[in-house]
């Protein structure tokens, strides 16, 4: 299993790293890396697993310089990446992206600019200039973090019809209908908006395998919210919100990433400050979450983490301790146990798996 790692290049990172994970032990080893992009923090694969896309999470001194997205061809024999081309995302701080199920478009969220963009893709994986750009407007109650819109992720639904954008700055989840014929993000009339609790700061988003539930992690509120998802209408109905921190813990913390296990039985969220993953069991009929426990990520600031496609292993990317730690997942209890395997990668952010 290949593991592609997006990083921040603020210290010694040289770009996007390719690792190999032993699928029986969770052991990790370096294969290759590719440079040339500043802060390729978040990466995404096309459905065929032949092309990797990486944002450049940059904002110039004026705060306005546009981010970009770069395409790389994947050599599965060598485990290497070769740049294809780069295009602007139209706004600063590109932080998240996803390729649609037909590989015709990549959709990007620009955090600092508070905007989203849609860019056409060619058959060879190369990227065309953006076909649509939408600027979000709005703010919320936290004067330090929510003074303006901050689109934090772009999440295409399993039907390849809608895209959901948690906007941390507005405390809203904005929904777009994807118009693939015209390369447009259609906001609806009236716009599709799901409001979060004031000051929650919705960030990342994951779909339950049953297609009927969605889980959103709220960065500023240190919570996870479950929603009922109506895939025919593209609507979210809030079900429950639970804390990501243990009772009585009072340190500084923000959350980062959320994932549902492939079997749909558990949801996990990462805490930056408590340096842990929180584990909840999911009632797959109601979306209710029952607390299971916390597991230390054996490092500092787990910005993101990944569950391998088999559901056996969880890898935690600890940004501020420059390590990725491997855990074996108990599929009956949801609990995690460190395998003893970890690997040094400078400022790791995002993890994506691909079978060799």
Task: Outline the structure in words.
With 356 residues, this protein is an all-beta fold. It has a domain at 37-195: YVTN repeat-like/Quinoprotein amine dehydrogenase (Methylamine Dehydrogenase, Chain H). Helices cover 0% and strands 51% of the residues. It contains no helices and 29 strands. It has strands at 2-7, 16-21, 28-34, 43-45, 51-56, 68-75, 80-88, 94-99, 105-110, 115-120, 132-135, 155-156, 162-167, 172-179, 184-186, 192-195, 202-207, 213-218, 223-230, 235-243, 254-260, 266-272, 276-282, 289-296, 302-307, 313-318, 323-329, 336-344, 348-354. Strands 12, 13, 14, 15 and 16 form a 5-stranded antiparallel sheet that branches. A hairpin with a 4-residue loop joins strand 6 and strand 7. The chain is globular. The N and C termini lie close together (5 Å).
Task: Write a concise keyword list for the protein shown above.
Methylamine Dehydrogenase, Chain H; 4-stranded antiparallel sheet; globular; 356 residues; 51% strand; mainly beta; 5-stranded antiparallel sheet
How is the topology of this model organized?
Blueprint: E1 2-7, E2 16-21, E3 28-34, E4 43-45, E5 51-56, E6 68-75, E7 80-88, E8 94-99, E9 105-110, E10 115-120, E11 132-135, E12 155-156, E13 162-167, E14 172-179, E15 184-186, E16 192-195, E17 202-207, E18 213-218, E19 223-230, E20 235-243, E21 254-260, E22 266-272, E23 276-282, E24 289-296, E25 302-307, E26 313-318, E27 323-329, E28 336-344, E29 348-354
Antiparallel strand pairs: 1-2, 1-29, 2-3, 4-5, 5-6, 6-7, 8-9, 9-10, 10-11, 12-13, 13-14, 14-15, 14-16, 17-18, 18-19, 19-20, 21-22, 22-23, 23-24, 25-26, 26-27, 27-28
């Amino acid at each position: 299993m290949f593991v592609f790692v997006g990083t921040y290049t603020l210290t010694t990172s040289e770009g996007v790293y390719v690792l190999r994970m032993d699928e029986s032990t969770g052991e990790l080893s370096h294969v290759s890396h590719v440079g040339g992009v500043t802060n390729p923090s978040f990466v995404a694969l096309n459905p065929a697993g032949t092309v990797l896309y990486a944002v450049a999470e940059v904002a110039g001194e004026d705060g306005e310089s546009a981010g970009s997205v770069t395409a790389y061809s994947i050599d599965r024999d060598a485990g290497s990446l070769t740049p294809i081309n780069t295009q602007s995302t139209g706004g600063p701080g590109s932080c998240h992206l996803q390729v649609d199920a037909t590989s015709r478009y990549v959709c990007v969220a620009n955090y600092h600019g508070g905007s989203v963009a849609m860019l056409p893709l060619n058959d060879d994986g190369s990227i065309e200039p953006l076909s649509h750009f939408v600027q979000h407007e709005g703010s919320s109650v936290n004067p330090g973090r929510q003074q303006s819109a901050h689109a934090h992720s772009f999440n295409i639904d399993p039907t390849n019809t809608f895209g959901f954008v948690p906007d941390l700055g507005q405390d809203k989840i904005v929904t777009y209908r994807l118009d693939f014929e015209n390369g447009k993000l259609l906001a609806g009339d009236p716009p599709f908006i799901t409001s979060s609790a004031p000051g929650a700061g919705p960030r990342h988003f994951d779909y339950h395998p049953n297609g009927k539930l969605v889980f959103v992690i709220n960065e500023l509120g240190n919570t996870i919210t479950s929603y009922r998802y109506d895939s025919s209408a593209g609507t979210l109905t809030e079900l429950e919100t639970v804390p990501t921190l243990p009772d009585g813990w009072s340190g500084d913390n923000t959350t980062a990433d959320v994932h549902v296990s492939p079997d749909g039985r558990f949801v996990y969220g990462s805490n930056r400050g408590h340096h842990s993953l929180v584990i909840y069991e999911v009632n797959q009929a109601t979306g209710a979450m029952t607390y299971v426990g916390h597991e230390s990520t054996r490092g500092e600031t787990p910005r993101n983490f990944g569950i391998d496609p088999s559901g056996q292993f969880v890898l935690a990317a600890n940004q501020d301790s420059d390590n990725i730690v491997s855990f074996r997942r108990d599929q009956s209890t949801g609990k995690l146990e460190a395998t003893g395997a970890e690997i040094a990668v400078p400022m790791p952010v995002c993890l994506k798996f691909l079978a060799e």
